[in-house]
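Summary for the funding panel

The consortium committed to producing paired sequence-structure records for every protein in the target list. Below we show the first two records in order, beginning with the earlier of the two.
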Amino acid sequence: MQLLILLASIILLVFLILKKISPVLALLAVSILSGLAFGMSVSQVVSSVNNGIGNTLGGTVMVLVLGAIIGKIAEESGAAQKLVFVLTKSFGIKHIQWAILFTGLLAGIPLFYNAGFVVLVPLVFAIAKTTRLPLLYVGLPMVAPLSVTHGFLPPHPGPVALAAIFHASIGKTLLYGLLIALPLAVIAGILYPRLIVKKKNVDEAITVEAANENALPTAAKSFLIILSPVALIAVGTAGIYLTNGWLKNIFLFLQEPTLALLLSLGLSVILLKLNAEKTALYCTEGIKTIALIILVIAAGGAFKQVLVDSKVGDAIKTYSTHLHLSPLVLGWLIAALFRVALGSATVAALTASGIMVPFLAPGISPELMVLSVGAGSLFFSHVNDTGFWMFKEYFGLSMKQTFQTWTVMETLISVLGLAGVLALDLAI
């Protein structure tokens, strides 16, 4: 009976979102109705909703807010644009795809997908026009790493929220995520475009210049602004291998994502010599970009908690034992189904997490569970995903062409991401 109620809840959630109801309201409504249908009292449902929101946001909200502010600073200051010009000059036109790929990876770490896309796509058009290369040949290397970082790497909303739900280490999630994300970005952003897009030889004498490049931050400042959060968290995570002492405490201090991002924000303000008024403006604008995502995460946490407290996850666990699937594979599969049905990668990941919490038994890495669900949340993007339409409209593609390029690329990242998770599971 519990499984039938869960199925009905999912169908209702999909129906509401397809009817353009806000995911926040849809998730909250379905959380309450499903809790009552599972036999929970009104007070139990309210308690689950409140606990779900509090527990999910408690470990994520400041990470998301600080990450959004740093991303806004990188966007508005031109640090992200500077990376394009530096890497283009370093790699040369012959290897322009690699330059764009690394730019997407670096910019994709602090910038959320939509912001990264909007910031980088004009430069992709400029490069394509200057080099006379096909637009998709230089466009796919930009969107592939943005998608990969969105699904696998903190401080993006999905991985951060999942890490809080599964009680995973942000530092380990980041390190494991990088091991998977880097080869995935190369396969989806370099090898895949070369297979499907024909190109002509380009003139090596051509260079890509920016009319306002002198007004942008220096290369050193740009790299520090964008990479300092990742560097601090990665260095801090290495502290787990130290023996007890003051040095270990410093490393553990840096490992905390909120503190690492706060230090990075301070560094960005100092490097760019931002005054109080400018800093306040960037903070306000950055928070605006993440406000709706935070609300979706909160509502997703409420739905997750209702599923956990109703014990429906245990029923699924009992049923799934007959399928003989690894919990990592099952997490990917459930997230993939939600992705196809709901469109939003973040909503798909959060919805799947509530079902997968009971599967975190000893021997199952919570960090790999984060990455498995994250990989599933990228599966088969189609017409109910805003990323699908952004790619289609910006690159002027037909529906068929968008399915053949964007949808196939996302599916490739998702499936190979699962393969990477399973390979890490064997190795660690």
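The next record, for a separate protein in the list, is shown here:
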Amino acid sequence: MSSYLDKLFGLHGSTAVVTGGTRGIGQSMALALASAGADIILVQRSEANLDTKRRVEALGRKATVYTADLACQDSVAGLTPKILADGHDVDILVTCAGIQRRHPAHEFPMEDWDEVLQVNLRTVWTMCRDLGAYMRTRTPDATGRRGAIINVASLVSFQGGLNVPAYAAAKGGIAQLTKSLSNQWSHEGVNVNAIAPGYIATDMNEALIKDEKRAASILERIPMGRWGAPDDFEGATVFLAGKACRYVSGEILTVDGGWMGRLHDNMHDWLVIAKLGPGCYILISW
């Protein structure tokens, strides 16, 4: 890597905490950070899967595994104190772990709602709060950077989805949480951003992929003409983690093959102006 690119994108000396790093998008994000020079702390349910750890170490970086049940708030609350007590100087947090439960809204079980909100939102909030508080105390580098938080949002942070009300509520919350924390911490050198994946060929979307009619309709609408792959997140992750994004905070970066650029595709672009009163009009587009 040239000295110029290393100055912008190099992460040597950084330590990143990554949730959901054993497979899929999270694994790709962890390996991208390690390839750029960061040591990696992997938060996993167990040590049964050490593939990412081995691959990080093969890149010449340190890899440490901490186990936690992200569906249990007590387990999540005890995680950051353990990491910091062990002397890790964490300056990057990536919250990629997530679960999905699909039911029609009128049949959605409360236990599934609670589990999705716990793993996909409350856990993210807890880790952002605790590690963000630590990052604020770090000595800033020459650019004023103390740390970077990258949350993983979703297209349903913007759209409602079908049969996924809990997931949509959680990911909508991730978008607003990201903006709120950016408002709070960006002036202190902690940049908070999110990546919103589009339709990615991972285990979480297995039900969609197996639904041939729905999968075909999704593929037809993606401008790039393909479903995304975990490797498509490498560049966005390294960018948001380091110095190159020093004036970028509070953003929800979509990695979606152009999906959001066609938000109104196949719809009539009507404009309606309604007069509500003297000098008061409303513009409606659909």
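Regarding this second record: The first strand starts at residue 15 and ends at 19. The two ends are 47 Å apart (CA to CA).
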